[in-house]
Design a protein that fits this description.
- This protein is an alpha+beta fold.
- 16% of the residues lie in helices and 35% in strands.
- It is built from 5 helices and 19 strands.
- It has a 5-stranded mixed sheet with strand order 2-7-8-4-3. Strands 13, 14, 17, 18 and 19 form a 5-stranded antiparallel sheet that branches.
- The longest helix is centred in the first third of the chain and has 14 residues.
- The relative contact order is 0.20.
C-alpha cells in the first residue's frame, strides 16, 4: 500500500490565547449573538470528538442534544470579549469560530456533557487534561510544597504514541483521528519538567518537516513517580496506506511507529 496522505496543521511555537479568549462558557449566559451565527450540522468528526470527551470524563450524554453554530465573521464576541468557542446552557447551544479546531470543540463539548459552565478542575485540569483546550499552571494535584528537582523531559519521562480510533479509517469521520501521546515519569522522586517555548507535544511524519503539535501556557509540569500525562493531536487522513511517525512530549521522544490507515 502506498504512503497515506495526511492533512496536518502547522503548529505554532507560541503560547495559546488565554482561556477567556480561547474558549469560555456560561451558565446564566449573556445574550446569544444570533445575528453573527449560522446553524451548523455536526460533521462526522464531531461524533469522534464527542466520544473522546466521554472517554476522558467518564460521563455519557447525547451529541444530538447539542445545537452547534458557527460564526459568520472570523471572531466571536460575547459580552464585549473575544472567544474561540462558547457554550450556553439555554438551548444547550455551542458557538464556534473554527469548527475544525478539535481541541476547542472538545472543550465546549465537555461543558455540554457536564451541563455546567464553570471549569471544574476535576474534569478540565484533571480527567481531560491534554484532551481539550484548557490551560492551567500545571499545579493541579501538586502538593503544597513539593520538594522536586527540575529534570528535562528527555531524562524524566517515557513517551508512547497510539491513535484513537486504534485503527483509523480514511472513510470514517471524514478521515479524522487523533494521536494520543502519553508521558510517564520514570523517576523515583517527584520532578518538575520544564516546557520549552510552550510546546507540549508533537508528531512528525517521516519525510515531512512540518509537524503537528499541541501548545500550552504552562512553563513547567509536575510529575510524581509513575505519574502519567497525555496530549491529543488532531489529524486527518486523505488516503489509505501507511504513515511512519514519531511523537514527543515536552522533549521525551516516542519510538518510531508505523500507523496503518484502512480504506
Amino acid at each position: 500500500m502506498r504512503n497515506a496522505a495526511i492533512q496536518c496543521t502547522r503548529f505554532v511555537l507560541a503560547l495559546v490565547l488565554t482561556l477567556c479568549v480561547a474558549a469560555c462558557d456560561s451558565l446564566v449566559g449573556p445574550e446569544f449573538p444570533s445575528g453573527n451565527l449560522v446553524e451548523l450540522q455536526a460533521p462526522p468528526e464531531f461524533t469522534l470528538w464527542w466520544s473522546l470527551v466521554e472517554q476522558c470524563s467518564g460521563r455519557r450524554g447525547s451529541l444530538a442534544a447539542v445545537q452547534f453554530f458557527r460564526t459568520r465573521d472570523p471572531m466571536l464576541i460575547v459580552d464585549g470579549k473575544r472567544y474561540d468557542g462558547y457554550w450556553w446552557s439555554e438551548g444547550n447551544r455551542v458557538a464556534l469560530v473554527t469548527p475544525e479546531d478539535g481541541a476547542t470543540v472538545r472543550h465546549e463539548m465537555l461543558h455540554a456533557l457536564l451541563q455546567r459552565g464553570d471549569h471544574a478542575p476535576e474534569y478540565f485540569a484533571g480527567r481531560c487534561d491534554g484532551w481539550i483546550r484548557f490551560d492551567h499552571p500545571g499545579t493541579f494535584g501538586v502538593p503544597a510544597s513539593p520538594e522536586a528537582a527540575v529534570v528535562s523531559g528527555t531524562d524524566a519521562l517515557r513517551a508512547t504514541l497510539t491513535t484513537l480510533p486504534a485503527a483509523p479509517r480514511a472513510s470514517e469521520f471524514r478521515g479524522a483521528f487523533v494521536y494520543l501521546i502519553t508521558a510517564e515519569s520514570v523517576r523515583t522522586a517527584p520532578v518538575w519538567v520544564p516546557v520549552t517555548n510552550g510546546l507540549l507535544a508533537t508528531v512528525f511524519v517521516t519525510g515531512n518537516p512540518i509537524g503537528m503539535g499541541a501548545v500550552t501556557t504552562a512553563t513547567r509540569l509536575f510529575f510524581a513517580p509513575s505519574q502519567r500525562r497525555q496530549a491529543l493531536i488532531d489529524a486527518r487522513i486523505t488516503d489509505a496506506g501507511y504513515i511512519d511517525v514519531v511523537g514527543s512530549y515536552v522533549g521525551a521522544a516516542t519510538l518510531p511507529q508505523r500507523v496503518e490507515i484502512a480504506p
